[in-house]
Amino acid sequence: IVAISDSAFAMKVDQLQKKIERLVNLNLLETQITSDSTPRYTLHPITYNYIQHQPSELFQLKAIQQAYIQYILEYTLTHIADFVMLDKHKENIIWMFDIALLQSTHPYWNIEIISLLNQLYDYFSRCGLYTKMEELFRRALEIDNISDRDSVQLLHNLGQSIFKQGMLDDAMKWFTKAWELAQLYQVTELYSVILRDIGRVYLHRREYETAIQYLEHAGNAILPDQFIIQGHIKANLGTIAEHQGRYGEAQQYFEEIIQQLEQQNNEVKMTYEYRNLFQYVLTMLGVIAIAKQDYTQSESYLQRSLSIAQELNNLERMAFAYLN
Questions:
Q1: 154 against 68, higher pLDDT
Q2: Cα angle vertex 295, ends 294, 298, to 5°?
């Protein structure tokens, strides 16, 4: 790589292209395609790991790191809502956060990196990277000079990543801190999601009355554009009703969510959060139909649920649908 870099300007374009393709075939470089279809190349993660442990003066490590972070940052922001495109460079995205946050070698990236990290919660969650998420969110919280909103969202996302690992008490600690800070800084757009997740902790503890209180408070804090959060709140209330054997009431909650979701435009219907909620609602309607011994209806709901779970590549949801 160093030899090619030193002689690049003396080569013809086709000669340089052949040498670069050779490096790609050797898995020393990875091909990247930018938004304008211009080919660019970055170090393969394994190559980068090797270079990282070599003398920095030989490989100009700092310059390589800066270029690496900048490119992956731009790529991720461009495709933030396209999980398929993010999947193509999942390892590179994780490496970017490792370099920028865990090693603290580039503090000037912190504001952009932390904002991006918060935005990627749904993507990392879909990938099941809860332990890695926890590590990154904990490190991010040690960074200075981040915005009030980012601080609150980091606390909340850390709580979510811990909640997903089944550590309810620890998750509650971070949700409570997020709620206290959200009120202090008046981050009103996060009130509903934080209260929702405190309610979810109580739901999983089977403290249903307390869970209902927090979920109702979350519903009262909903902002006009937070219809997905409103769906989550109703889904949790429906889940509590189902757990308590109030199947008619539970079914009503989930049917209301379906009705609300189907009113959205096609662009919204393509989003991950929409399909993720829709899939869960179909699963719960299938479970309720089983309890009512309506097996034909149950199979219909669960088949639709399974199809969406497969599209989302959510193995946990797929397994649950198969089991039912």
A1: 154
A2: 90
